[in-house]
Every structure is written in C-alpha cells, then in structure tokens.
Amino acid sequence: MTATGVTVPAQRPAPLPAPERRGRTEVADRVVTKIACCAAREVPEVREVHQRARPWARASDCEVHGGRATVRLNVSVAYPAPLHAVAARLREHVIRRVAYQTGVEVSRLDITMTDLGGDLP
Amino acid sequence: MNRKTGRGNRWGLGLVGLVLTVLGGSALARGLGAFSQNWAAARTTIVDGNVTGFFARTGPGIWWLVALAALIVAVLALRWLFVQGRRQTRRTLRIEDGPTGVTDVAAGGMAQAVAADVATGPGVLHADANLVGPPGRPEVRLRVAADESVPIGALGRHLAEVALPHVRDALDRDRVPAVARVSLEPSPSPHRVVR
C-alpha cells in the first residue's frame, strides 16, 4: 500500500481575545497627578492645589506601580475649616475620582496643607 | 532660642562664672598671702620655676593633652554657638497618620492664618503667631500690638471667643494652650489728606 497525499486542513488561528482585552494600557504618573489635582480642586474647602514645586514645598506628585498609585498633594485650605474633615473628604474624593477616570487604585494619599487662609466657601 | 537653650545658657554661664570666681578668688588669696608661703608665696609670679619645671619634666606629651583640651573647648563653644539658633517653632504639624496616608499642616501656614485671624480683632495693629510644642500637643504663641485707646477686654474676648476657637476647630482638639503677649501702642495718627 502506498502512501497517498493527505491534505491536512489548515489550522484555524487561535481566537483573538475580546477587543477590550487586547493590549496594555499604562497610565503615566503625570496623568494621575493631574487628575488628582483637578479632583482636589473640586473639594469646596480647598482653595488651591500646588501642582508645581515651590521654593518651600515639594510639588504634588504621584508614583504608579502596577495599577496602584501613591499620591502626594500640596494644598491651600480655607481657614478656619476643620482640617481633619477636609483631609478625609479630600482623600475620599480624590481616590474615587482617580479610580473612576483611570482605573488606578490610590493606595496612599499624603496631604500637606502648605498654607491656610481665605474665607470658607 | 528656645526654653531648653535658655536653660542651657543659664547653666553654662553659671558654671563659667563659678570657675572664674574660684580662679580669681584663689589668685587674690595668693596675692594676700593666704596660702602656705612654702607652697605659693605671695609676691611671686604664678608661672614660676615650679610650673616651668613641671612642663619641662613631663616632656612633649603634655602639650598634646593641652591641645586636646583646647580642641574640646573649641568644639563645645561651636556647639553652643549653633544651639543659639535652635528654635522651638515647628515646621510641620502631623494631624493624621493612617494606612491611607499622612496629613501634614505647615506650621508657618497655620501660624499665618492664626495671625490674620487675630489681626481682625478690635484695635489690633499687628499680630504675629507661632506654633510650638511637641507633635501631639501644639501650642500657640501670639504677639499682638494693640491700640491703647481700645479696651483690652474686647481684645481678650476676641481671642477667647473667636481666634482660639478657630484654632481648636481647625485642629479638632478640645484644648490648645495659647500664650498671648500684648503690647499697647499709641493709636496710629489719622492720615492727613491734602487737597
């Protein structure tokens, strides 16, 4: 018996993953910093967010590692606002807003209130 | 200069004063012949043959000891000099330290806000504030220049009922000790308008 040519059907390519799972999205530190600063400005008692470094204070910044971020914010707060409550509200709002917009989880948010003043909203 | 430095200064000055008094008193006593005349006769120089003989006998090693003592004195003097600049003022006030992050308040910023708040009081010409004390127990130091024609009670009430409650509210503490130093000054002369 002689071997006859056997036609092997072409192998089907492996199915592609769902479109939303193709590729990797990385969110840069700068983007998270900017979103965090914008979110911080939305808290009524926060009068200003210092995004850039000043001679007497570090810049607001952020480090993203594997979907988790450490954020540092320098803010001006109205006086006399209860600072603990303002910090708690700021933390909660910024963490929620960053998670919503980038999917990055803020694991730590350090707040420095560099100056106080101005009237309460 | 803070309180600790001030205490150190008093002790240091007291000690130096004591040493100098003892030395001066001894020299005076020697001049007046209070010591045994065989050992330290009056009307002889202090650095006499005995002293130079002692240095000559012990050899060059003694000069190393003298140099070491001088070095120690110099280091202590320098340390004293640097310590004069030590302030009790805090740079930041940590109001929160949790797993989700820390919250710091710049003491200078807080002090400015307190000073601005105090300055709105009746008859206040100028106000200055400082935050001092250990991390967990901040204290407020105020220097207020007030108009002497305005009753001081009104200023006291403003501090007790407005400015200090604001500090307590801001720091969320039931008690924030405060010391206010008020100086009374003549009321500023009204500006003359020349038409």
Give a brief outline of the structure.
Chain A has helices spanning 29-41, 83-102, and strands at residues 46-49, 61-65, 68-77, 105-116. With 121 residues, chain A is of the alpha+beta class. In chain A, a hairpin with a 2-residue loop joins strand 2 (61-65) and strand 3 (68-77).
Question: What are the key terms here?
Answer:
heterodimer, A: 121 residues, alpha+beta, Alpha-Beta Plaits, four-stranded mixed β-sheet, 4 strands, 26% strand, elongated, B: 195 residues, GMP Synthetase, Chain A, domain 3, 2 domains, three-stranded mixed β-sheet, two-stranded antiparallel sheet, 5 helices
Structure overview:
The complex is a heterodimer of chains A (about 120) and B (about 200). Chain A has about 120 residues and is an alpha+beta fold. Chain A has a domain of about 80 residues: 2-Layer Sandwich (Alpha-Beta Plaits). In chain A, about 25% of the residues lie in helices and about 25% in strands. In chain A, strands 1, 2, 3 and 4 form a 4-stranded mixed sheet that branches. Chain A starts with about 30 loop residues before the first helix and ends in a 5-residue tail after the last strand. In chain A, about 35% of the residues are buried. Chain B has about 200 residues and is α+β, with helices and mostly antiparallel strands. Chain B folds into 2 domains: about 80 residues, no CATH class; about 90 residues, ANL, C-terminal domain (GMP Synthetase, Chain A, domain 3). Chain B contains 5 helices and 5 strands, in the order H-H-H-E-E-H-E-E-H-E. In chain B, the strands form 2 sheets. In chain B, strands 3-4-5 form a 3-stranded mixed sheet. Chain B has a two-stranded antiparallel ribbon with strand order 1-2. In chain B, a hairpin with a 2-residue loop joins strand 1 and strand 2. Chain B is elongated. The relative contact order of chain B is 0.09. The model of chain B has no long low-confidence stretch (mean pLDDT about 85). Classes of the chains: A alpha+beta (about 120), B alpha+beta (about 200). The interface between A and B is medium-sized, with 25 and 24 residues. Strand 4 of chain A pairs parallel with strand 2 of chain B, so a sheet runs across the interface.
